[in-house]
Amino acid sequence: MKSAVVSPTAGYIWLLLCYVQHARSNLLDEYEALSTHHPLPQFHRGLELPVELGVDRSSGCICRAVYGNSIVVCFGNYVCKRFPKLRIQSDVLRVRTTVIDQLVRGDLDAYYYLRILDIEANHQLTYIEPGIFRNMTKLEHLSISYNTQLLSIDNRTFEGLRNLKNLTMVNNGFTNIIELVPAFRPSILPSLTWLDISENSFERITAHTFLPMEGSTIRKLDLCLCRLDYIHENSFTPLKRLRELQLGENDLSANQIEKFLIKMAEEGITLTHLDLSGIGFRKQPPKRLLEVIAQSTIKWLILARNQFEIIGNDSFPPMPHIELLDLRNVLTISIGINTFSPSKFPNLKALFLNNNNLPGIHYNHLSDQLIYLDLSNNQGDNENPMYFEIGRDTFINSKQLRVLNLSFNAMKAIFDYTFHGLGNLKVLNLENGTLYYIGIGTFRSMPRLKTLNLANNPLAANQNLSSAQFEGLNELKILILKNCGIKQFVDDDNIFEMMPNITHLILKNNQLYFITPETLKPLKHLQVLDLSENLMIAWWRPLFLAAGVKPLEIDLQNNKISLFSLSMIQDMNYILENRGNETAKIHLMYNVFTCDCSTMYKTSLWLEVNGSSVIKDFFSNSQIRCSSPDIWEYKRVIDYLTSIRRLNCLVYERFNHAVVFMWTAPTLVSFIIIVIVGTFIYKYRMYLRYWLFLAKIAIGRKFIQKSLKSTRELKSYKYDAFVSYCNEDRDFISEMVSQLETNPPYLKLCIYERDFEIGSFISESVLSSINESKYVILVISNNFAKSQWCRWETQLAEYHRLFLEDGTTYDPLVLIKMGEIENKYLNTTLKYLMKTKIYHAWDESNQTEFWRKLRNVITKKV
């Protein structure tokens, strides 16, 4: 809905609205317009469109929707040739990536109810017939963007859009703005307040360009990335109500900007927002232009992506009206101690200094009125890393500061004196700060802190988190500890006792196997708990029920849960029931559920006898999938539960008890014998290894070596190598085929997607191909280690290698390592192979040498 030129305050500004309720500035009410996202953990992975509406017969478009059909998206590439004709009503319709070449009257008549319409990325669209929007009187937002073959718009195209407020026409094929503007005249678009025509090649704006829009209600105009090099001083004077002007990423001189700003002020246009990002200013901000801005009504000044290496005390004149100053990514390495002093910026509320090369902040001369300070990502680059430091008592005068962003800075530690003076701070972001040490009492000086983001810091690398570190956070609502290396929480020193008012606790991507009721007991107000991407397994005593904690949302996706224990079912039932108008959510996808009688029979029986309607509805509507056995892999757990044959599982259970009884005594005796034998083997293991080594050499020399070697010399292999890989590495395999099969000596590889016979069983084809191949190549990556099929193929390859081992140098197994592999995904065989065999590591920077070495291994004579 918005162009690619994103507003600079699109970070945490929305939090000011939430937490700075008593700030003495009307500016806070305006921040909402620029709030496009926030730092809270999102359980919505982008815009999910789970409802498949099918193919629209009249157009060939494929359409999907969100639940409730409030948002519908239609697409189709080379199938969707006409505008879809949907029979369902929604608030939002998006038609994208089609081959529609024109829109004519009647195509949109049935969509009179829409509030938002996006027609985007339809690269064959060349014509929109005037009057096509005649019945769309309820439409408030219209985007016709990224249609590169749309070169013009008729003056009457938008007739009927009486209530349209926002019009976005970004990155089309427009080249003449004078021909475009008459379509926006107020007689046709009387309610228009925001016009975005960025990323079109206009180059020049003359004195008469916007005359057709005289009397327009437009308040915001976006002209970013339009290759503008000339704007007449009288260009914007017809737009009397204009308040926000975005001119970033154009090639305008400071002199031109001065002239039209002076002219706009003379005409009584009270401009409040000015975007001059990426204009090309060098060395320092243009003084004359800044003086003109200082005398204007502009409150928000955006100078991002220019180049000011050193910002001195005299770089800015006194600017009493400026409330927001954006200096992101201006390559600054030094700032004068009085540059932003209250005497120059008495009303400065938001200051952006992120994405620069600052070594830290060591002075306390910031504006007393500052509410938002962004110093994130001042870490330089890989060649010139920057270490970020905060001086003692730096924030001693920052009593009004509410939001402090220090993320993506190379800060190793924070101490009890780091944040002195921030008694009213509401949001502190320390994400990706490389923090490994938090001093005792560090947060004590921030008693009103509401949000603390410590994600992606190695906090638990050298120490356990302690309650003393988090002392003073009694009002904290949101705590983000994503990817901090946490393995467990110590109940005897429960850190959450210091934060009893937490509503959102994010523990994603740590190393937690379990969590106890004692850990959760202090969190009586918990609403969201994210434990996804950990190592959690099923728990065998009630967790949430015992802790008395009833969150609205729990995320347990991508863990190691294989079954539903009775305690899990009881906790789920407790969370889901009696919520009134609220609907609780429990996410359990991407776990390793085993669907057989031993794990699911008791679950099914309990649900049938004791399960409430709420828990039954949860299982009926869930998409939780089975991981094993093979016959049920990727199928829904509820489908298995409903297909259980009660008698068979009951017979299985009774037979299982009988078998256990019958084999108890023999098993006990066998266990004792195994312990004795194992003790003997362990005690004399060195002698046994030596005897086995001598026996192997003797036998190999006399029998096996001769027979296997002669057999191998006589055998004619169908393939030079069988390649085992996962689908995610398909591109690498294509390159391997190209390198080894099309260049001398023209090897023959077995690739299952190409060489397996259609209709044959995969397992039989794999066994046959390994036996018919001289070598077996394992392309080991993170995705390979996760795949059950790849693990099975690894076992076969290892057995094949052991069978052919004859004391010679011939080894049929070749390993290729692709990137870093997480240890938790490696099974025993893979760990053994990686530690005992020399492998080929893929080197992107030296591909020729890599392929040469691999070719030499496969063609080596044995």
Task: Walk me through what this model shows.
The protein is of the alpha/beta class. The chain has 21 helices and 40 strands. It has a 23-stranded mixed beta sheet, with no helix packed on it. The longest helix is centred in the C-terminal third of the chain and has 30 residues, at 685-714.
Quick overview:
With 862 residues, the chain is α/β, with parallel strands linked by helices. It contains 21 helices and 40 strands.
Q: Can you identify the CATH superfamily of one domain?
A: Toll/interleukin-1 receptor homology (TIR) domain
CATH names the topology of one domain as Rossmann fold
Distance between the termini: 64 Å
> pLDDT average, as an integer?
84
Described by strand count, sense and barrel closure, the largest sheet is: 23 strands, mixed
Overall form: globular
Give the CATH architecture of one domain.
3-Layer(aba) Sandwich
Structural class: alpha/beta
Fraction of residues in β-strands:
5-15%
> Mind telling me the C-alpha Rg?
34 Å
For the record, the CATH class of one domain is Alpha Beta
Helix % is 25-40%
Stretches where pLDDT is under 50 for at least 5 consecutive residues are: 1-46
The oligomeric state of the chains shown is single chain
Number of helices: 21
Number of strands: 40
